[in-house]
What we know:
Elements (H helix, E strand, L loop, with lengths): L8 E7 L6 H9 L4 E8 L6 H8 L3 E4 L6 H9 L6 E5 L3 E2 L2 H12 L4 E9 L5 E2 L2 E2 L4 H8 L16 H6 L4 E3 L1 E2 L3 E5 H6 L12 H11 L3 E12 L9 H19 L2 H25 L6 H16 L6
Parallel strand pairs: 1-2, 1-4, 2-3, 6-12
Antiparallel strand pairs: 4-11, 5-12, 6-7, 6-11, 8-10, 9-12
Helix pairs in contact: 1-2, 5-10, 9-10, 9-11
Amino acid sequence: MxxxxxxxxxxxxxxxxSAETIATAVASARSCPQVERIVIVDNCPGDGxxxxxxxxGATTVVSSGANQGFASAVNLGLKESDAGTVLLxxxxxxxxxxxxxxxxxxxxxxxxxxxxxPVLVGSGGSLTLGARRFSSWWNRSAxxxxxxxxxxxxxxxxxxxxxxxxSVTPVVVDYVWGAAMLVRRSWLDRVGGLDERFFMYSEDEDxxxxxxxxxxxxxxxxxxxxxxxGGASSGGQEYLASARLAFATWQLLxxxxxRWRATLYRSAVRAAYVAWSVATRLRGDGPRNLRERAxxxxxxxxxxxxSAHPD
Length: 311
């Protein structure tokens, strides 16, 4: 691996209806002396995000012309950067000098690590590990099943989260969340960037699986803390996020585990959806507006055909 001890950091942020949060993200990155370029890829031209980002100190703002998805936008942003490491940062996240320093040092200190991620801090101060085990048809099915989704050893969550959070050294994990991840640029170039078949969600796990497949690994740096509001990309629409995640998970399993395992997962989602539909009808608290009904129609399309355009 290339020595990164003196490497600068470029930041790539994908913006989508992010005018209210992106200035904080850009300003936080600009306050870090390691950061050189801050590249914004605007996936929703005209929403005010580009202007807010420029005012906060963004180096470059690129318009994608339309919402082409997260992976495609990141690849577009990578063309505007050339630092030894690239920090992929959500527009509703913010970093500081300490976090960036720890992430860079973690990659420098581990020649086979290609991605480093932090612990995420919510708006109320709650800590989220920001790392998960690889998906399987079973643990992802458990994640959508009543009751089972709460049992960590059955779903994709690490069961020993407390010990991971308390670790004073970087920990090898399957993958870290894409809200904030520092990636070796040389490796990212070598693998061709992000897989653009993923519109939103699962890009981070795909990178983790790709790293593992070529003998590299991903590390969580518990000492690095990054503030992350979360949910901004889906506008607070829980149903929209669920439909997008289901579709992306199916794509991921189809790519890495094969079509039949992806089909098993889809069957589990169908069962969970039927149970949810029955429960909401009995309670009389079904979809309240056209947006929610449209999103549920998207989920039904995914369950029926195995494909859906998620936006």
